[in-house]
UniProtKB/TrEMBL annotation:
Enzymatic reactions: UDP-alpha-D-glucose = UDP-4-dehydro-6-deoxy-alpha-D-glucose + H2O
Protein name in UniProt: UDP-glucose 4,6-dehydratase
Entry similarity comment: In the N-terminal section; belongs to the NAD(P)-dependent epimerase/dehydratase family. dTDP-glucose dehydratase subfamily. In the C-terminal section; belongs to the dTDP-4-dehydrorhamnose reductase family.
Taxonomic lineage of the native organism: Eukaryota, Viridiplantae, Streptophyta, Embryophyta, Tracheophyta
CDD domains: dTDP_GD_SDR_e (cd05246)
Alphabetically ordered keywords of this record: Isomerase, Lyase, Multifunctional enzyme, NAD, Oxidoreductase
InterPro entries: dTDP_Gluc_deHydtase, NAD(P)-bd_dom, NAD(P)-bd_dom_sf, RmlD-like-bd
Metabolic or biological pathway, per its Swiss-Prot or TrEMBL entry: Carbohydrate biosynthesis
Species in which this protein is naturally found: Brassica napus
Domain RmlD-like substrate binding, first and last residues per copy: 361-531
Pfam families (UniProt xref): GDP_Man_Dehyd (PF16363), RmlD_sub_bind (PF04321)
Gene: BnaA01g29180D
GO biological process: auxin export across the plasma membrane; flavonol biosynthetic process; UDP-rhamnose biosynthetic process
C-alpha cells in the first residue's frame, strides 16, 4: 500500500479538542510538514490547546471562520445552493468550493464526521456498523453531519476532489470543554458536587482516548485511500452510569451518594456501535486503556482547573441557550453523544504563508551544573525567556508544579549524576545514581509527554567502546541506532539503560555528549582542564563535544523540534596527546606530560573509562556548518585563550 506524504496541511477547528491533539501530534512528529490551523475561536475553542505547537517553526495559527467567503476567497459560483446548506453543511460547502477552485493543489481533503450518522444501533447487535452501512441519522445534529458527508462525496465524484471521510466514536482526554460528559463529571467531582445522569444511565457509548484518535488521523492522512470512509472506533462499550461510577471511584467518593438522576434529554440514542476493522488493516489500533486514559484525564483537569475560565453554566444538568465565551449560543450543550467533534473539523492540504514568531520559553533542569549554567547564559544572550526547574526530577509532583508555573515551550534536562570528582563516585553510590539518572529522567520525559512538551535531554556517548566492528583509528564510528556495548562503569550502565527506555517517548531529543570541552579552561569539569592537571594520561583518539559550538546548536534543535537520538559530538576524533600539544602551543609552552597504558590506568581508577568514535553524519547533515573537532578546538577554545 502506497504511503502519502503531505507537505502543507490546513486543519480547521484545531483550537478545539480533538483537532488540537491532531495538530500538535503532526507538528511535533513531522517537522518538515507545514501546519496551518484555522479556527474562529468560539466557546469550545482555546488557543492554549495549541501551546505545544505555538513556538514551532512549522506551525501557524489563523483566526477565521470557514463559513466566511471573504476568508476563503469564494465568490458567487455556488448560485443558490447555499440556501440549502446551513450550520455544519454551510461551512463544509464553503471549504469544499474553496478547495475546488484551487484546481489540482489539494492532495487530500479529510472530512471528520461522526458515528451518529449511522443512527441508533440495536441493543442486541453483536456486529457494529461498517463503513458501507446505511446512514440513518436520528437527530438534527447527526442529520447535518450526514448532509455534510453527502456534499463531500459529491465533490469527490463531480470534481475529482481527493476526499476521505472519518466517522468516530466518542473522544475524551485533556483540553476538552466541560460541556461533554467526562470532563463535566471530572470538574463536578473535583468540587464535591453531584454527577447528573440523564434518564437511567443505561445509554451505551464507546470512548477513545484523544491521543489514540490523533494517531488514527495520522494513519488516515498517510495511508488512507481517496474516496474511502474509515470508522475510528473501539469495540469496548460502557454505560453512562458505569462512566459515572468509575469517575466517582477515581476521586475516592461513593457513587451511590454522588450520582444524581435527572430528566432525560431529547435525541438521547441508546447505543452507537462501530466496526473498526478497516482502519486496523492500515496499522492503527487503540493503545490507551480506559483506566489509564481516565487517570491521565483526571490528572490534567486537577492540574488545570481554570483552563476554560468560568464554566459554571456548562456544568448544569440541563444547560440551555447558554451564552458562552465567543458569543456563540450553546443550546443543550451537555449532550453526551456530541463528544465526537468540535464544530467543523477538516484536514486539507494547502499552501500556508508566513512564519509563527511566538517567543520561546525554556524550562531548564541542572541550574548548578555546568551545562545547565551555560544554557541559561546562552538564553540570556539570545533573548530567550527561561527559568530553572525547582523540583527534584524524581519527584513527579514537583516537576508537574514547575511545568504549571513556568508554562514552557520546551524543557531542557541538563541534570543528572556524573559523580564528583569523577564517575568512580557512582560505583559506591548506585541507588543515588539510579534515582537521578534513570528514575528522574524518565519522570521528566513522562511529564513532558503528558503536557505536549519536547524534552531536550543531554545524555552521554560514553556507552560505547572500540570493538572489532569499530576498531580504533578506522574512522568507523558508532551510529545513533547502535546498541551500547560499554559496561565498564555503573554510570554508563544507567545512561545506556535510560536512553533505551527514552526511545519509547516520541517527545524526547537525546543528545549524546562526549568528553565535553569549553573555552573556560578554569572549569574542573572541562576535559582539557582535567587532563592538563594529570601527571599521566592515556593517548587514545576519541569523539568529543565542543560546548561553545554545540550548545547553541542544541537550542536551534529545540526550535526545529528535532527528536530522536543524536550523536552530539564534533565530526572526527582527537587524541589526548593532540589536545595537549595544542595546549602547549597556545597556552603553556613549557607544559610537559607523560603517557601510560590502559592497564596502568586501570590500577588508579575504580571504574573503566569509555573510548570510542561517534558517527557524526546525522548531526552534520542537519548542521553542515559545524566544524571538525580539531578545527573547533582551535576556533572556540585555544585561539580565545592564546597566551603564546
Amino acid at each position: 500500500m502506497a504511503t502519502y506524504k503531505p507537505k502543507n496541511i490546513l486543519i480547521t477547528g484545531a483550537a478545539g479538542f480533538i483537532a488540537s491533539h491532531v495538530a500538535n501530534r503532526l507538528v511535533r512528529t513531522y517537522p518538515d510538514y507545514k501546519i496551518v490551523v484555522l479556527d474562529k475561536l468560539d466557546y469550545c475553542s482555546n488557543l492554549k490547546n495549541l501551546n505545544p505547537s505555538k513556538s514551532s517553526p512549522n506551525f501557524k495559527f489563523v483566526k477565521g471562520d470557514i463559513a466566511s467567503d471573504d476568508l476563503t476567497h469564494v465568490d458567487n459560483s455556488f448560485g443558490n445552493s447555499f440556501e440549502f446548506t446551513k450550520n455544519n453543511i454551510y461551512g463544509t460547502h464553503v471549504l469544499l468550493e474553496a478547495c475546488k477552485v484551487t484546481g489540482q493543489q489539494i492532495r487530500r481533503f479529510i472530512h471528520v464526521s461522526t458515528d451518529e450518522v449511522y443512527g441508533e444501533t440495536d441493543e442486541d447487535a453483536s456486529v457494529g456498523n461498517h463503513e458501507a452501512s446505511q446512514l440513518l441519522p436520528t437527530n438534527p445534529y447527526s442529520a447535518t453531519k450526514a448532509g455534510a458527508e453527502m456534499l463531500v462525496m459529491a465533490y469527490g465524484r463531480s470534481y475529482g476532489l481527493p476526499v476521505i471521510t472519518t466517522r468516530g466514536n466518542n473522544v475524551y482526554g485533556p483540553n476538552q470543554f466541560p460541556e461533554k460528559l467526562i470532563p463535566k463529571f471530572m470538574l463536578l467531582a473535583m468540587n464535591g458536587k453531584p454527577l447528573p445522569i440523564h434518564g437511567d444511565g443505561s445509554n451505551v457509548r464507546s470512548y477513545l482516548y484523544c491521543e489514540d484518535v490523533a494517531e488514527a488521523f495520522e494513519v488516515v492522512l498517510h495511508k488512507g485511500e481517496v474516496n474511502h470512509v474509515y470508522n475510528i472506533g473501539t469495540t469496548r462499550e460502557r454505560r453512562v452510569i458505569d462512566v459515572a461510577n468509575d469517575i466517582s471511584k477515581l476521586f475516592g467518593t461513593d457513587p451511590d451518594s454522588t450520582i444524581q438522576f435527572v430528566e432525560n434529554r431529547p435525541f438521547n440514542d441508546q447505543r452507537y456501535f462501530l466496526d473498526d476493522q478497516k482502519l486496523k488493516k492500515l496499522g492503527w489500533s487503540e493503545r490507551t486503556t480506559w483506566e489509564e486514559g481516565l487517570r491521565k484525564t483526571m490528572e490534567w483537569y486537577t492540574e488545570n482547573p481554570d483552563w476554560w475560565g468560568d464554566v459554571t453554566g456548562a456544568l448544569l444538568p440541563h444547560p440551555r441557550m447558554l451564552m458562552m465565551p465567543g458569543d456563540r449560543l450553546c443550546d443543550n450543550c451537555d449532550d453526551e453523544h456530541k463528544d465526537v467533534a468540535d464544530g467543523n473539523q477538516t484536514f486539507t492540504v494547502v499552501t500556508p504563508s508566513g512564519d509563527n514568531k511566538t517567543p520561546f520559553k525554556f524550562l531548564i533542569y541542572g541550574k548548578t551544573g555546568w551545562l545547565g549554567g551555560l544554557l541559561g547564559k546562552l538564553c540570556e544572550k539570545q533573548g530567550i525567556a527561561y527559568e530553572y526547574g525547582k523540583g527534584r526530577l524524581e519527584d513527579r509532583a514537583s516537576v508537574m508544579a514547575d511545568v504549571r508555573s513556568v508554562k514552557p515551550t520546551h524543557v531542557f534536562n541538563a541534570a543528572g549524576v556524573t559523580g564528583r570528582p569523577n564517575v568512580d563516585w557512582c560505583e559506591s553510590h548506585k541507588t543515588e545514581t539510579i534515582r537521578a539518572n534513570v528514575a528522574g529522567t524518565l519522570t521528566l520525559a513522562d511529564v513532558c509527554r503528558e503536557n505536549g512538551l519536547l524534552m531536550m535531554n543531554f545524555a552521554t556517548g560514553c556507552i560505547f567502546e572500540y570493538d572489532a566492528a569499530h576498531p580504533e583509528g578506522s574512522g568507523i564510528g558508532f551510529k545513533e541506532e547502535d546498541k551500547p556495548n560499554f559496561t565498564g562503569s555503573f554510570y554508563s550502565k544507567t545512561k545506556a539503560m535510560v536512553e533505551e527506555l527514552l526511545r519509547e517517548y516520541d517527545n524526547v531529543c537525546t543528545l549524546r555528549v562526549r568528553m565535553p570541552i569549553s573555552s573556560d579552561l578554569n572549569n574542573p569539569r572541562n576535559f582539557i582542564t582535567k587532563i592538563s592537571r594529570y601527571n599521566k594520561v592515556v593517548n587514545i583518539p576519541n569523539s568529543m563535544t565542543i560546548l561553545d559550538e554545540l550548545l547553541p546548536i542544541s537550542i536551534e534543535m529545540a526550535k526545529r523540534n528535532l527528536r530522536g537520538v543524536w550523536n552530539f559530538t564534533n565530526p572526527g576524533v582527537v587524541s589526548h596527546n593532540e589536545i595537549l600539544e595544542m595546549y602547549k602551543s597556545y597556552i603553556e609552552p613549557g607544559f610537559k606530560w607523560s603517557n601510560f597504558t590502559l592497564e596502568e590506568q586501570a590500577k588508579v581508577i575504580v571504574a573503566a573509562r569509555s573510548n570510542n568514535e561517534m558517527d557524526g553524519a546525522k548531526l552534520s547533515k542537519e548542521f553542515p556548518e559545524m566544524l571538525s573537532i580539531k578545527d573547533s578546538l582551535i576556533k572556540y577554545v585555544f585561539e580565545p585563550n592564546k597566551r603564546t
